[in-house]
Design brief:
The structure holds two protein chains of two kinds. Chain A is mainly alpha-helical. Chain A contains ten helices and five strands; from the N terminus they run E-E-H-H-H-H-H-E-E-H-H-H-H-H-E. Chain B has two domains: 220 residues, Immunoglobulin-like; 38 residues, no CATH class. In chain B, helix 6 crosses helix 7. Classes of the chains: A mainly alpha, B alpha+beta.
């Protein structure tokens, strides 16, 4: 009956009592950042939930559910503006569903082996430090250049690369490219796999891959990636719900409602700030989250032993 | 305050006259009874754990032995049986990784014990081992192919009750069975916040002069009530619909957010 009992809410799937305002605030803060930087925020939500003692399996499944809300309205806007390549996006979705299905299978396997928490943490450490490091490097370079008086431009790499030599080419009108469907399916599958294991949308990998690998024009990149994310995270959510029963709808709703509100304010602030500085800030944040997860892997745990319900009826 | 659980019991009047017979009856007719006023407890979502009071009666007691305080009672509440895995982390390349594990079966998910005194003062360890009574005397049955070697099994078995005690799912409360009168006693058990739902069995064990006489059991159903539990049940029983609803809810939330903020 101590402090917090009035603000407490019991999460039916995570099976712990949490403070409503902490979760709402977490959703709002991540929503604010995602509105400001134009990212989905799934890669921040899942680690934050793990820091808040939500079981990683629930954090991942619920993270995917939460991403739908933040991506759906964005995808809709791009669809209306015509900055969404439905044909290419649909191929990404097909690949994504394959990848997500494999991901769910691996997820169940890891859970049975008792290695899920470790693998989720490791994947996050690897991805967050790589992405954070690259972003920091790129934005610091851009800041130096602007200081030196040059115009900050994204460098355009060579017109053609190995991707364009692959067979099964297809023409995509909205993107104005003629490219093999193999890299599209593979990219979609990779993102789908990460979506189901890490609970992210995967925009932070898909956007650079579309620009640099597929050479898509930047104006359709965000919309098309959001389109893929909505479908793949929706598929992941349903799969997680049916195979692991680990989607916590109460938790997801708290995060979503906070996130939707936070995103609106974030977007307004984001328009007033300079791009490079923003990206440097986000990079530092991403690195900090990655570092915190990494430390936990190396620090000697309080208790070397742990107990959990034996998953499935195996062993007999 | 949330659920106050008070399981009051029957008895009282019917035992009053029987003490008179005590002297000439054969030495072994004492009985122990416990009763619960309800067979179902509904726990709401805000439940943060509570004490469960069980009343019981010691019948046909020998007044002499009783005066000397040589009757002892142990009451346990055992939760539903589940299978558990105990894992140990080892260090690989500096990272702590779950390495060895042992699987156990038919383990009560929760276990709360109350006794008149410390168990070692009631009877010899051998007696408790035979009864499997007490957190350290229960038999933790490994799954037939759930462990590597007998060495690991030996190492992991004591960890199971230790971890359960740490999670407060197992508890032992010596001194929390108290005689209220010559025949009536009260046992205070722990229902932790994370008490598992399902069929629980309450058992009372009667000891006289360090010797086990008999036990009596009654069952209790613990269910969770409220919206949160209905959500939990939906997630398990109608998982496909639940998943589709989760997606639908996210789409609506995202869309509603856009509508509300679109004015500027």
């Amino acid at each position: 009956m101590g402090f917090g009992s009035d603000l407490g809410i019991y999460l039916p799937i995570a099976e712990i009592s949490v403070n409503i305002f902490v979760l709402f605030g977490m959703g709002a803060a991540v929503g604010f950042l995602s509105g400001m930087f134009g990212v989905g925020g799934g890669f921040l939500i899942t680690p934050l939930l793990i820091f808040y003692n939500i079981p990683p399996a629930v954090a991942v499944a619920t993270g995917a559910n939460q991403v739908i809300a933040s991506s759906f309205s964005g995808a809709l806007t791009h669809f209306k503006r015509g900055t969404l390549d439905v044909k290419l996006g649909s191929l990404l979705v097909i690949g994504g569903i394959f990848g997500a299905a494999i991901g769910i299978y691996v997820f169940v396997l890891l859970r049975e082996l008792g290695q899920l928490d470790l693998i989720v943490s490791l994947l996050y450490v690897v991805f967050l430090s790589t992405i954070g490091g690259l972003m920091l490097y790129e934005s610091v370079k851009a800041m130096r250049r602007t200081k030196a008086g040059q115009l900050a431009t994204l460098k355009k790499p060579g017109q053609h690369n190995w991707v364009h030599r692959l067979p099964f080419k297809m023409r995509f009108r909205a993107s104005k490219i003629y490219v093999s469907i193999i890299p599209i399916l593979v990219l979609g599958a990779a993102i789908g796999f990460l979506s189901s294991i890490m609970g992210v949308g995967g925009g932070f990998i898909m956007v650079p891959a579309m620009i640099y690998l597929l050479k898509m024009p930047t104006n359709v990149v965000i919309g098309t990636s959001l389109y893929q994310i909505v479908f793949v995270t929706a598929f992941t959510t349903v799969m997680q719900a049916t195979t692991n029963q680990s989607v916590d709808i109460v938790l997801a709703f708290l995060l979503m409602s906070g996130g939707v509100i936070g995103a609106q304010y974030g977007a307004r602030i984001g328009q007033k700030l300079r791009g490079e500085q923003l990206r440097a800030l986000l990079a530092l944040l991403v690195l900090a989250v990655g570092l915190r997860l990494a430390i936990e892997l190396f620090v000697t745990p309080d208790d070397l032993y742990s107990i959990s319900l034996a998953v499935v009826t195996g062993g007999a | 305050m949330k659920t106050v659980l008070r399981l009051v019991v029957l008895l009282a009047a019917c035992f009053a006259g029987q003490v008179a017979y005590a002297q000439q009856r054969p030495s072994n007719t004492e009985t122990v009874e416990i009763g619960l006023s309800t067979d179902t407890i509904a726990i709401t979502s805000g439940f943060r754990g509570t004490d469960l009071t069980v009343f019981g009666a010691l019948d046909n007691a020998d007044p002499l032995i009783q005066r000397q305080g040589r009757y002892d009672i142990v009451v346990v509440l055992e939760g539903p049986e589940r299978n558990f895995v105990v894992r140990r982390k080892d260090r690989y390349l500096g990272i702590w990784v779950n390495a060895e594990s042992v699987s156990f079966q038919h383990i009560p998910a929760s276990y709360s014990l109350a006794s008149t005194r410390n168990l070692q003062d009631i009877a010899t360890p051998k007696v408790f081992a035979q009864l499997g009574l007490g957190v350290n005397n229960m038999f933790y049955e490994p799954m037939p192919d759930g462990f590597g070697s007998s060495q690991t099994l030996k190492e992991f078995t004591p960890e199971l009750p230790r971890l359960k005690l740490k999670q407060k799912l197992y508890s032992q409360r010596p001194g929390d069975v108290q005689f209220l009168s010559a025949t009536l006693f009260r046992a205070t058990l722990s229902l932790p916040a994370n008490v598992p739902v399902g069929k629980h069995v309450a058992r009372a064990f009667l000891f006289r002069n360090g010797e086990f006489l008999r036990e009596n059991a009654t069952s209790l159903n613990i269910v969770k009530a409220g919206l949160e539990f209905r959500i939990y049940r939906a997630a398990n029983q109608y998982s496909l619909l639940y998943g589709i609803f989760a997606v639908f809810l996210a789409v609506i939330t995202g869309w509603a957010g856009r509508l509300v903020f679109r004015k500027d």
